[in-house]
Amino acid sequence: MQTNKTVAKRADLLCFSLSACQLPKIIIIGVRKGGTRALIEMLSLHSAVAAAENEVHFFDWESHFQKGLPWYLSQMPYAFPDQLTVEKTPAYFTSSKVPKRIHQMNPDIKLLLILRDPTERVLSDYTQVFYNRLQKHKRYQPIESVLVKDGEINLGYKALNRSLYYMHMQNWLRYFPMESIHVVDGDELIRDPFPEMKKVERFLQLEPQIKASNFYFNKTKGFYCLRDHGRERCLHDSKGRAHPHVAPAILQKLYQFFHEPNKRFFELVGRTFNWN
Ligand SMILES: *[C@@H]1O[C@H](CO)[C@@H](O)[C@H](O)[C@H]1NC(C)=O
Ligand SMILES: *[C@@H]1O[C@H](CO)[C@@H](O)[C@H](O)[C@H]1NC(C)=O
């Protein structure tokens, strides 16, 4: 292992050759299907933020992690010296090795975690996989058969596990204090993005810059779009796809299943969310 100092030096050189870039000071760690794309797009409205285009998967993919911090840096966008670089990789939140690795890079980093109702998130997770398989003409299992096995909630279903927020959060809190982690309410961000984004701005100690007029509701889409210096952009159409129909009895079972895990999460973060 190299010491941090030598890594930083090499990183500086590499960065210089790439004009200018910085390791992130902010990471959006998840959750998958929580609204991470919307969050990073909205955060990009702020002039002090430089956002990485792609999901970098540095801390969770061994093949990337082995390339070291210089490679990570090379994946970052151009940034002015007074800008904060941010990247988002939703898989970080549920990967148990990631918190330690991020802490080793920078114990003072600011982490953003965007969460939605865990049942909704499972359905959304399923829907994404469903559409991917449909596109590739692969077979897919109906949602009921992955959610339930022998009449019980199927704990082996990975999407279900990803929604056990308290379990993953415990990993993060081993390395970071709660003051370093801001939880964005993903359901609120969709419903009314401006107030949620003001909270993010405050947490990051950014100069107040994001305005209500940066957001406008697109009635056709049923979602907010962004307006930035006269330019308008909406998120990709795959965001906000209709969920599959799930038998009410199974939906009820899911909500019940998450009741206790949710309570544990609320205790962990000292805050409640409007999840049923
Ligand atoms: C969920 O995932 C975690 C970490 O990947 C694992 O330790 C745990 O056993 C899983 N839980 C269930 C119920 O499958
Ligand atoms: C609103 O959404 C529709 C449907 O996606 C799109 O065609 C249209 O360009 C959007 N209009 C604005 C002003 O964003």
UniProtKB/TrEMBL annotation:
InterPro entries: NST/OST, P-loop_NTPase, Sulfotransferase_dom
Reactions catalysed according to its record: alpha-D-glucosaminyl-[heparan sulfate](n) + 3'-phosphoadenylyl sulfate = 3-sulfo-alpha-D-glucosaminyl-[heparan sulfate](n) + adenosine 3',5'-bisphosphate + H(+)
E.C. number: 2.8.2.-
Disulfide bonds: C225-C234
Highest taxon in the source lineage: Eukaryota
Main location: Golgi
Cellular-component GO terms for this entry: Golgi lumen
Keywords: Disulfide bond, Glycoprotein, Golgi apparatus, Signal, Transferase
GO biological process, one term: glycosaminoglycan biosynthetic process
GO molecular function, one term: [heparan sulfate]-glucosamine 3-sulfotransferase activity
Active-site positions on this chain: K33
Residue stretches making up the Sulfotransferase domain: 24-261
Subcellular location: Golgi apparatus lumen
Residues reported in the UniProt entry to bind 3'-phosphoadenylyl sulfate: K33, G34, G35, T36, R37, R116, S124, Y224, K239, G240, R241, A242, H243
PANTHER family for this protein: HEPARAN SULFATE GLUCOSAMINE 3-O-SULFOTRANSFERASE 1, HEPARAN SULFATE SULFOTRANSFERASE
Family: Belongs to the sulfotransferase 1 family.
Function: Sulfotransferase that utilizes 3'-phospho-5'-adenylyl sulfate (PAPS) to catalyze the transfer of a sulfo group to position 3 of glucosamine residues in heparan. Catalyzes the rate limiting step in the biosynthesis of heparan sulfate (HSact). This modification is a crucial step in the biosynthesis of anticoagulant heparan sulfate as it completes the structure of the antithrombin pentasaccharide binding site.
Protein's name in the database: Sulfotransferase
Species per Swiss-Prot/TrEMBL record: Myripristis murdjan
